[in-house]
Specification:
flat, 1 helix, little secondary structure
Length: 71
């Protein structure tokens, strides 16, 4: 899991940005999402949250191959 740092892209026209690199191995994947997923709510008003997203991804057929990174 790679956490966002800095100003969101497009929020401020002249905001400075830094960059970094991440290598995804052949056959690997990188799942990107915006704040809209963890902030989404169900009919009971419950937020989707990042841990729920992790649970959904962890239940996928390829879940045994997922490696979670945290910084």
């Amino acid at each position: 899991e790679v956490h966002a740092t800095g100003t969101p892209i497009g929020m401020l026209e002249m905001a400075p940005f830094s960059s970094d690199e991440l290598t995804v191995a052949p056959g690997g994947f990188l799942f990107l999402f915006s704040d809209g997923i963890p902030e989404a709510q169900d009919t009971d008003g419950e937020f989707y949250r990042g841990d729920r997203l992790r649970d959904v991804l962890g239940a996928a057929p390829y879940a045994d191959d997922i490696k979670w990174w945290e910084n």
